[in-house]
What does this fold into?
Amino acid sequence: MIPLAELVERYRPELERRHGSQLTADHHAAMNAIRTCHTPARGVLDYRCEACRATRIAYPSCGHRACPACQHSTNNQWLDRQRRKLLPVTYYLVTFTLPAKLRGFARTHPEWTYATLFRMATDTLQTFGRNDPALGDRLGLTAVLHTHSRRLDYHPHLHVIIPGGSLDRSGLCWKAKAGKYLFNGRALAQVFRAKFLAAMKEAGYWLPRDLPKAWVVQCERVGRGEPALTYLARYLYRGVISERNILSLSDDCITFRYRDGQTRQWRKRTLHAADFLWLVLQHVLPKGFHRVRDYGLLHGNARRRRQRVQLLLTPSFFMAPSHELTRSCRCACGGSWRLVHRHFPDHATRRRTARA
It folds into this structure.
């Protein structure tokens, strides 16, 4: 295992030499965060055991979404919240993929592209839902943006997990969708393509002439939903690669492993450490951009309607009280560690860290 922070510290100058024209302020912010994660540059935390009065120090995490050493509790909290929203119905997973010809455009206009991908994909699904006589009101959707393939190449696509049904317009009856497929994938792709390209034209962007006429939208049945949620949660808040999959560093080249999507076998990829860093950094999202969004029945504001559906479908359903996940922090004696003081780094240290 090779820590990503070590690679940033060592190969950042070479990265800037090779890819400097492509690096943005968001990329530099990500590198600064990763490099200083769990170091004195972020301050010092003083803890004291409430039982034996022993003391220890720790260094704060950076909390950046691209850092593989952070956000594990945040990831688990999101998954816990989504599990509480699960309905006892069949779920479907729909994946909208941007064609390769638009990836260059997406790199240079990431915020617009990703926002439009969310908007047009969910609008397409809601349109199909409204036009389907087997369904009723708005669909419940959880959409998650992924920008990478398993090899970490740039591959923007949107996963949408959908309960197979919806409330009728009265809000008192659940209308279930039967069958292996929620909607026809080719029909979804045609409508999504038309909506996305219309949005590009309206925004004044130039359309490549050789865009494919057939775009890819996959629609599959995934059972009760939890396995799909677990898969989608994997890279939500802790970067696109786990450090345990960074296998070795030799002659300035990194070897990492990934699981082949077709064979499910582990494969290896080797490239220069600076190029590997760029491979990781190209998936940093614009500051403030939300990678996951809920719609309709799965939106946070629809809690009462969602509980009504849960009661309709499972009369004996019991809603467990909501609670926040907390990490147990214990001393060797069994007592609890208590934070007694936090030392913040001085401004001069912060400026030197940012410039380094």
